[in-house]
Amino acid sequence: MSDVLVVGGGVIGLTIAYELSGRGAKVTVVDSGRPGREASWAGAGMLPPGKIQPDQHPGHWLRACSAERWPKFSDQLRELTGVDNGYRNSGGLEVRFAEQAADLQREITFWRAEGVEIETLDRQQLLQFEQRISPKLDAGYHLPGFAQVRNPRQLQALMAACASQGVQLLHGTPVIGWEREGERIVAARTGQGIQPADQFCITAGAWSRGLLDEFDIQPEIEPVRGQIVLLNMHRPSFRHVIQIGSRYLVPRPDGRILIGSTEEWVGFDRRTTAEGVRDLINFALSIVPSLVDVEVERTWAGLRPGSPDGLPYLGLIPQTSNLFLAAGHFRNGLQMSPATAFLIAELMDGKPAPVDLSALSPTRHG
Ligand SMILES: Cc1cc2nc3c(=O)[nH]c(=O)nc-3n(C[C@H](O)[C@H](O)[C@H](O)COP(=O)(O)OP(=O)(O)OC[C@H]3O[C@@H](n4cnc5c(N)ncnc54)[C@H](O)[C@@H]3O)c2cc1C
Q1: pTM above 0.85?
Q2: Helix 11-22 / helix 151-164 crossing angle, nearest 10 deg
Q3: 204 Cβ below 6 A of ligand 1
């Protein structure tokens, strides 16, 4: 029997399985399909910087703690598996056209208050940073600590690392209910039979809510579609991740450029659409006009596990003594995965959380 059964093999479930198996636990991960093929595969892999601060909001703590862990975490995965996840510090530029610049100062103040290295840029300085960007961009800032990871490779590395630490990964095994004895969950009912364990963690991304029907809580986790257009220049393009709010360009060293992303509440619909693709391409050309004749390699969409406040639900499910939830990371599941896994492992080990988790409580929305 497993010590821990992890339900869902996306980046959150696999990182938790890696952390727990590294601490000596016998872990099984069950996935209804193939692990690592849903939102975690579809994401852009942007990893913003962060500095842990006393009394930090737990959402900022998850980002900051993860940012501090990513370099060593990536080295460990490479040493263990030989897979290079593509983690690199590319730096990030947040930019604005003249009519959009109003909210920049608030963001700059926020990053400075957290102690993150930041450099403000005027129009000329922006062009010195990235010569290809539109001269109409008026202002921005540079975050030298902004990093990125090739998320499909990160998932490949996690699966290999989990396997090397003895984690059992079961494909095509949807959890459909729970076997309970009082407050204790004794097994998960799956499409392939019963999976008993001492502790359980739901990490089923956008599908997590359906696994909680028989409990008294309903965290508001909903699928939020994000479309991506992938360009390929076949040679290195620009260096920095370039963002305007929730829209971005992520350049890979091999000449590929991800344009992301839409935010659409359309249920479990993974299609890419003419409107979504048009908006993303228009956005990209407004920032880097010379991309106009670059090849479109492919498009895709993923279903983020959205929550009303954009924050994950982390912790023990009430009226159970051994069922945990780690889901609802919305736009930030890749970046927050190392700290999420650390936190859940600490809670499962019976240790106190390093931050006040009430703002992330599974019961905060009813
Ligand atoms: C276009 C796009 C761009 C993004 N960009 C970024 C980014 O740059 N940086 C960032 O940090 N985040 C980004 N994200 C968000 C990030 O991808 C998600 O927050 C993260 O992947 C969520 O991980 P997860 O493991 O919770 O969910 P998922 O990756 O969706 O995994 C959930 C897993 O659970 C399985 N499952 C479902 N139901 C069951 C069941 N009943 N039984 C067993 N298994 C089940 C599924 O098959 C799936 O494998 C992006 C997302 C999208 C869509």
Answers
A1: yes
A2: 30
A3: yes
